[in-house]
Design a protein that fits this description.
Number of helices: 6
Strand content: 15-25%
Largest sheet: 3 strands, mixed
Structural class: alpha+beta
Helix content: 40-55%
Shape: elongated
CATH architecture: Roll
Distance between the termini: 28 Å
Radius of gyration: 18 Å
Strand order of the largest sheet: 1-2-3
Order of helices and strands: HEHEEHHHEEH
Low-confidence stretches: none
Number of strands: 5
């Protein structure tokens, strides 16, 4: 069974973070520079929330707030679902689908060790399906 650790081994464990006192503009610039859809919000080294593209759209743009003057903690999602390195990917997929999440921080004990996205899960699923197809093809037609 494929676990979160297998995704992190390939993807890496770096997590984009911002302090809860950062401006929305700073967080959005970091997301734009890294081509990512979310940053984890920290306060005194602990997870305080997550700030996503949806938060920007719904809580900043639609609310007509100035991103340069609005602090991330004012508009972030404070309830953060997490998983561990040992969590099966199927459990992550189910949780993400049911709760309409696109990102899950990976926490082992009280240590942040990575973040996975729905895109990471889909990429892993495609890879596994391609391997299955290749093995089935070889079984039916012999090696290439």
């Amino acid at each position: 069974m494929t676990q979160v650790r297998h995704v992190l081994e390939k993807k890496g464990k770096e997590v984009a973070t911002v302090d809860r006192e950062a401006s929305v503009l700073e967080a959005a610039q970091k997301m734009n520079e890294r081509h990512i859809g979310a940053v984890l919000v920290l306060h005194q080294g602990k997870i305080a929330g997550i700030f996503t593209e949806r938060d920007i759209l719904n809580r900043v743009v639609a609310a007509r707030k100035d991103p340069a003057l609005t602090k991330v903690h004012e508009v972030m999602t404070s309830k953060v679902a997490v998983c561990s390195s040992d969590t099966p990917l199927e459990s992550c997929r189910t949780a993400m689908t049911r709760n309409k999440l696109r990102h899950l921080p990976v926490v082992d004990g009280d240590r942040l060790v990575g973040m996975i996205s729905i895109g990471d899960l889909l990429a892993r699923e495609i890879q596994e399906q391609e391997e299955t197809i290749r093995w089935l093809h070889e079984y039916m037609h012999g090696p290439n």
